[in-house]
Amino acid sequence: MGLFGFGKKKKEQVAVSETNEIEHIAINHRKENRYIAKSGTTCNYGEVVDFSKKSLAVAVTKGSHETGESLQLELEGISIDAKVLRVAPKKMALKLENDLAESVAKRIKTKLKESEIEPKSLLDFQNMEHDPDMEKKRAIINLMLELEDPNTSVEKFKDSIHAIPEIRDHLIAQANSLENSRLGEVKDEGGAVTRLGFDRVKAIVYDYIMQESTKADESLSHFKDFDIYKIVLGAYFKKFAPLFGFKDRNNEAIHFLSTLNIGAEYLAKQSGRLAELYKSPYELFSFEMRFMEYREFGTDLFEINKYYFVDSLNIFRYIYDGFVLANMMLYPKYTPHYTIELSERKMRFGFIVYLCILALRFILSKDKYSGVIFYNRLKRLGYDAVSAKEFINETNALINQQLIRLGIDKKIQQPDLGSGYAFSLENYIGSGIYYEYVHRMLVLFDDKATRMALRFEDEYYTMDVLEKVLNFDEFGFKNSAFVIVPCSALADDEVPMDQFKAFNLVVFKDVDKLPKKLQKDFLKIWKDYEDKIICTFSSDSMIEYENKELFEALQPYIVDFPSYYQSPLLYTKMLTNTAQQINKFLGTSACDIALFKNDYVTQKSVYVECLK
User: Fold this and answer.
1) What are the C-alpha distances in Å from 186 to residues 169, 170, 172, 173, 197?
2) Which end of the chain, N or C, is less packed with Cβ atoms under 10 Å?
3) Per the domain annotation, does 6 fall within a domain?
């Protein structure tokens, strides 16, 4: 079930029973989720070390005990009947006669400290509609759409031209050019359209809009290569769209990609700090930029653009959410704080845009990390290293021809990938038994298994590591067409399985936050989808208490991302890698991991402290 016919050949990875139900390989043999107890959680026999819904591990401080012995615990003011399962020096495992109460479990569970973003102010979206610059952009967008509308009329076209004085005057000047001077003076857009003809007017208007789109607004004066980034993005989209069977109706996608900067221009006008940070395509699409936007205004570029295009102008409705999904492929830790709706078209569009952003960041921002991923993704289309380079050079040649036609004195070339970007899971988790466990589970999932339910304490960092796993050579997922579904943000009334048929791998992020009305659909997909699925959920949700049906479906496939409480080395890796990401974005060394050495915090907390 590869992406539009380009998927890798299926492995012998599932067995089919007589009832034709797919049997997925279990990778977890624990019947219950285990949790680390808060330091100082004691019962009448010692300190509780860890626990599940049906058992406790106790560091014994009083007496000696034998396997099978019945005990009555006093924990959190509650009496609990238990039996000794195993005894070790200074430790015993207890089986509870009844399930541990949810209220007790939640009180004694460890929880990482996490800071929340406090926006400096809240943006009034309606003010955006009345901004004079935004009104002009609205008029240009309307004219762009009229250009592509096969049902447009001369009268409608003239009305759209009249709304933009610069284009109106440009057309009148063309109509009154030397070659037309003997015909008399044209004074309005109607006369210009009549004299020049509808087709020539459309060509002139299109070229004029393209020229205008390359000019940076004053608010984005720090943005390097603004004049060409949309041309690069559009050129690669035109290359990839037919390869993936995406039909760009009336050039809707190309027009959308040419207007991405609108929300950024508006935000930059409101905040000098943001204006300074919009420095290149790398920053424009970075997770850190979304974080900074939210800190400034309680919203981000993607939500602003959605409000402007989809809610206000009622355009790009059938592709916009795919753009959000593309950015989640770049940064799986990004979660929309607004709702989206899924469709096969949006997800296809999203995967293509994901590839285009990788190309853009590699070619214009010289980001080798994006370059390595881009090359890996091209291999999925059948390109080897040589033919991939030829593909990029051919596309860049087309871009350079367009730059010449537009009078832009720039030429792009393919950056040198150098020795590439070496990835090792060990660099992100550290060595030892926890690395060995995660690596073993990932190899099994890559090779034979089809389901993995990833349970985490720190969502941001777990998603960071997952992004690396999906993209680099240590595992085979770099050859998979994938999509990341933000379960907490879905506004759909249903999620049909067939809309995922184009993908080898579907990641259901935060499945514990999936709207209840969609759980039946998810469980069917989890059971019957032929290719691989990863879902993620927080240990804090305690789904065995909150959602027993979901827990029972996931239990055979749960993989625990290690806890910082178990592996201080993992915590150090998180701090080091996070500081590198933030400092790369800021272009400084301002993020100091020494600030976070005294307590275990989430990666989000590091962002809150370092991105101000």
Assistant:
1) 11, 12, 6, 8, 13
2) C
3) no
